[in-house]
Amino acid sequence: MKIYVSIDFKGLGGVTQWSDVEYGVKFKQNYLMEQLKAFLRATDGNYVLLVDSHAMGDNVLWEITKEFENVELISGGLRKNYMMSGLDESFDRVVFFGYHAGVGTRYAVMDHSYSSSSIYNIWINGQKMNEALINAAYAGLYNVPVAMIVGDDKLKGQVFDDVFFVETKESLGRFSAKHKSMKKVLKEIEETTRRMLQVPREKFKVYKFDTPVELVVEFTDTARADLVEMLPLVERVNGRSVKLVHEDYQVIFDAILSMAFMCSVVKYIGR
Question: Would you give the distance in Å from CA 211 to the centre of its chain?
Answer without folding.
Answer: 23
